Amino acid sequence: MPWSPLPAFPAHLHAAAARIRLACFDVDGTLTDGRLYYDKDGNESKAYFVQDGLGLKLLQQHGIHPVLITARNSQSALRRGADLGIDTQIAVGDKLASVQALCAQHGIGLEQVAFMGDDLPDLAPLGAVGLAVAPANAHPWIAERVHWQTRTEGGRGAARELCDRMNRPTLNWRTVLGIGLLLAALLSSWAALRNRDKGPANGGNEVGVDYILHDFTIVALDEQGKESTTLRAPLLERQRGDQTISIATPLFEMPDKDGKHWTLRSETGWLSAKGDEMKLRGNVAGDSPAGPGVPPTTFRTDHLDVFPKESRARTDALVTMTRPGMEQSGVGFEVDSKNNTYHFLSQSKGRYTPRH
Predict the structure, then answer these.
(1) Nearest-5° angle of CA 333, CA 335, CA 337?
(2) I need a surface site. Which of 80, 282, 302, 314 has the fewest CB within 10 A?
(3) Residues 104-122: pLDDT tens digits?
(4) Taking the chain, what is the end-to-end CA distance rounded to the nearest angstrom?
(5) In sequence order, which residues have a C-beta less than 8 Å from that of residue 247 and are 6 or more positions away?
(6) Does the global pTM surpass 0.90?
(7) What is the structure's pLDDT at 80?
(8) Residue 327: what are its φ and ψ, rounded to 5°?
(9) Interatomic CA distance for residues 315 and 278, integer angstroms
């Protein structure tokens, strides 16, 4: 399948997409093409797009709660929601009231909600939520009032486009960016403890290694005493002169909410004395835990510079990322963990990879 550009998504909406915790979807005209079919006995049927279904399931894996909301008394929508394990509301007369009730149920604000719809019954919630989206086939009155309109039509992948934009995270970058400060603090404290009973250094010899760790594991705990980050490596050395730290084949492990581990590894690691810069060099690889029937999300590049105090990371090398249903690549890459966003600097390409 040839590489093609990903659908345009305005840069200012990345932050809005990163805040989403509840994603609501109209059904007819959004998850379907809007056409209704009746058999000779008057039974109604409609068609759904399988890639939309996977996108909705992936939202759940990324901590976003998807809900189907339709004004019609649609048994088909109930069946589709049941097949996907997604909450479904039918015969809804006031969709905004329904969304507000869901916000109260989940303890979130409307700014943390995305809504996708195509016609007038969707107008009120679209005007109230943090991310309002319409499919390409939406009525013009709707299209001119949303934040973004997909390139594909309802029932043909429009919902998947939105899901892909909200399913952006490839690693827990906030945790990754905190590794440098954490490691520097741990090692500085340890060095101070080792040296507290020693007198002033003699001779001013600033050449060589200050101390070495072999085959070690460092586990950092969060405020609840649970694992936050684990570092494993066969060798760590701190230079006596500039206090910088070199690590051979570092492996960072970061647990998710289910206790499974994201991993980030490289051939070498380097940390500045103050912990404000960390350099990972050689086959930098990040991987999410794989779920049943769902392949892991991956991140690959040759080198990565991490700036914890600035909450950012970057590389000028080729980056390749994969996640279920999509592959992306580009030359140059930057992460801003404050806004939970990333972007490629040049030659950005992507392709959908539907599962069979």
Answers:
(1) 175
(2) 282
(3) 999 999 999 999 999 999 9
(4) 14
(5) 231, 233, 235, 236, 268, 269, 270, 271
(6) no
(7) 95
(8) -125, 140
(9) 12
